[in-house]
């Protein structure tokens, strides 16, 4: 007889199915809400890191996006501009200029001065701006102006990938 007996295989699969049907709901209910620590971003000593900036606005009720739940419902065209330095620290336009200038100055001094950093273009950091789709251009343009005035020569944009399926 050349047929394979599948009865033991079916029995094992049914037992595994019952185990998973019981174990998955128990595992989901026992996991408590995960608390992710918020850590201050520290600059690397050995590698020049690009400056990451997020530009958005307040929502219709005037709330600002936060890393912790705030009831924020999304950027609006009429909202006030909100700029996050290194994607974590909320700054206004004056603070953005000051903090960006200080950061760039530290990078230039660490590299050995303006001549040394100009000799190796890889040492010059870039600014990457992630703008909310609903943030008005005035917010993004103000951010570009401030970081270029602080001395950053290259400003780039980070966008979400487009779904090829439409």
UniProtKB/TrEMBL annotation:
What are the entry keywords?
A: Cell membrane, Membrane, Protein transport, Transmembrane, Transmembrane helix, Transport
Alphabetical GO biological process terms = protein transport
What residue intervals traverse the membrane? 12-31
Q: What is the lineage of its organism?
A: Bacteria, Pseudomonadati, Pseudomonadota, Alphaproteobacteria, Sphingomonadales
Give the molecular function GO annotations.
Answer: transmembrane transporter activity
Q: Which organism is this protein's natural source?
A: Aurantiacibacter aquimixticola
Alphabetized InterPro entries for the sequence? ExbD (IPR003400)
Compartments annotated for it: namely: Cell membrane
Protein name in UniProt: Biopolymer transporter ExbD
Q: What is its main location?
A: membrane
Similarity-based family: Belongs to the ExbD/TolR family.
Provide the membrane topology annotation: Single-pass membrane protein; Single-pass type II membrane protein
Which cellular component terms (GO) are annotated to the entry? plasma membrane
């Amino acid at each position: 007889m050349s047929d394979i007996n599948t009865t033991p295989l079916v029995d094992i699969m049914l037992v595994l199915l019952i185990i998973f049907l019981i174990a998955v709901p128990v595992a989901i209910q026992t996991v408590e809400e995960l608390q992710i620590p918020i850590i201050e971003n520290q600059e690397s000593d050995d590698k020049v890191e690009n400056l990451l900036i997020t530009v958005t606005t307040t929502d219709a009720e005037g709330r600002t996006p936060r890393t912790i739940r705030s009831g924020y419902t999304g950027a609006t065209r009429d909202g006030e501009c909100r700029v996050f330095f290194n994607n974590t620290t909320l700054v206004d336009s004056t603070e953005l200029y000051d903090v960006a200038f200080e950061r760039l100055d530290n990078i230039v001094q660490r590299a050995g001065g303006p001549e040394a950093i100009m000799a190796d273009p890889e040492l010059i950091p870039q600014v990457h701006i992630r703008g909310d789709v609903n943030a008005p251009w005035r917010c993004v343009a103000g951010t570009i102006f401030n970081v270029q005035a602080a001395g950053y020569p290259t400003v780039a944009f980070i966008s979400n990938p487009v779904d090829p399926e439409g």
